[in-house]
Design goal:
Length: about 210
């Protein structure tokens, strides 16, 4: 029963963006927000407001770093330079790019690695596999899956969203394993921002080349 309650709470947190977007667009509390454009700021404010009341979170803790983690960090950091090119994300306009690179990674890391992961660790902490000597627990896999399907709040289900979800699932496993190992979301957050920045950079370059060829 306790595990079911934890899963239900985790699912509720996973789809909190969509629920908030549905509410704020209907009641129109922000002028010009009929398409949910500013939902990220309301969502983020609500998420950070709760950080002071939730225990067992990894949000404000500094990471425990050793030589192994330094190797893992730089390996993923370098891999992102190549992998992000194929992510397929296409944020357009300064407003969307800033949100994509900064605000979404911050709020997502707080929710999925800061809230949901510690919550799941209470009942699903047994190790499933190891990646780069980092334990990947059942809780990490569940949180990565939730992180993946959470992207359906931003995109319709099609071949592109499936691609985004695949990248999110892999990233969720790596970020979750790192968060558990370091007891902090700081390193996953930096890697998440880097990945999104590079994805936006490659997309922008591709769009410029396409326009020049026309």
């Amino acid at each position: 029963m306790f595990q079911i309650a934890i899963i239900m709470l985790a699912v509720l947190l996973t789809f909190s963006y969509g629920m908030i977007k549905g509410i704020v667009t209907k009641i129109s509390i922000i002028p010009g927000n009929t398409d949910g454009k500013y939902t990220i700021y309301i969502w983020g404010t609500m998420v950070f407001a709760t950080t002071f009341f939730i225990k067992d979170k990894l949000v404000y803790q500094l990471p425990v770093v050793d030589k192994r983690m330094i190797y893992v960090f730089f390996t993923i950091f370098i891999a992102n330079m190549f992998i992000a090119k194929y992510a397929g994300y296409k944020p357009i306009g300064r407003f969307n790019i800033i949100n994509f690179v900064i605000f979404y990674p911050i709020v997502e890391e707080v929710i999925f690695r800061g809230y949901i992961l510690p919550l799941l660790n209470k009942s699903f902490q047994y190790t499933f596999i190891e990646i780069a000597y980092l334990p990947v627990s059942i809780s990490v896999i569940i949180s990565a899956f939730l992180f993946s399907i959470a992207h359906l709040q931003y995109y319709k289900l099609n071949k592109w969203s499936i691609r985004y979800m695949s990248f999110a699932f892999i990233g969720g496993i790596l970020f979750g394993a790192i968060a558990n190992y370091t007891q902090s979301i700081l390193i996953p957050l930096l890697l998440h921002i880097e990945f999104n920045f590079l994805a936006a950079y490659y997309s922008s370059n591709y769009q410029k080349v396409s326009m020049q060829e026309k």
